[in-house]
Amino acid sequence: MIIDTHAHIHQHDEYEIPEIISRALESNVSKIITAGVNITDSELSLRIANKYENVYSGVGIHPEEIKSPISKKDIKALKSLSKENKVKVISEIGLDNQKTSPEIKIQEEGFYEQIKLAKEEKLPIIFHIREENNDFEESFAKDIAINIFSELSIGDIGGAAHYFAGKWDYAKKLLDLGLLISFAKPIIYNKSLHETVSKIPSDKIIVETDSYPQHYKPDRSKWTEPKDISNIVNKIAEIKQINRKFIEEKIYNNSIKLLNF
User: Fold this and answer.
1) What is this structure's pTM?
2) What's the rounded Cα separation, in Å, for the pair 32 and 3?
């Protein structure tokens, strides 16, 4: 069994969702976390989670959605959502240091407040940190995040760096803070990530598809779905040169522990 710890299946046309779940179950995916990117989207995530037994919700405000300072009203709405039984994580949150991103100071405040909320509600976080041009060497946003994690003792609630695409030294800083690393499809084709994969202990890894409606792909069968997560597990086993069943069980148990199932 495996858990897709970060997806956005609630953003698909609703008639498609039962089929997506069915294909996932057939591929040994037992649970899916579908993460919201703003208040309205988080409400939809929760509605879909409440409708389907093996779907669970993440609620949060994506950094690209924080175009003005996060308000008390936003935090109050997230707090209310976070108390629902099927909400397992504060997500999707993070920092984006890119040319078209909102002002970083505003993002930083929003990130900080959402982590504080996660601590209050005793929920883990699933986050991303993106530098300009997704540069592995750049550390501006990473340094801000590390400082916030240290100040707020992030290890108390735990969390994971989703869609991880970075070097080992950055991954180690996150691990030392009590966080996990979540791998997705980039490890299949990006060899520069293989050193990081090989060095991270098996009990610190979870996996995800980050799947959402990929309208830019004209062939619907090519869209990433939770069913595709086995390809990521296969690649981790190959890179680490360990038994496929062993790493799947490790990843599953890591996900269960993080998400308090």
Assistant:
1) 0.97
2) 6
Distance CA 19, CA 109 (A): 39
Q: How far apart are CA 170 and CA 44, in angstroms?
A: 33
Residue with tokens 């779905």: 225
Instruction: Please state the domain extents for the chain.
Output: 2-259
Q: Where are the beta strands (DSSP E) in 60-166?
A: 87-96, 125-130, 159-161
CA distance 116 to 125: 10
What are 122-139's pLDDT values in tens digits?
999 999 999 987 777 788
The architecture in CATH of the region 2-259 reads Alpha-Beta Barrel (3.20)
For the stretch 45-100, pLDDT in tens is: 999 999 999 999 999 999 999 999 999 999 999 999 999 999 999 999 999 999 99
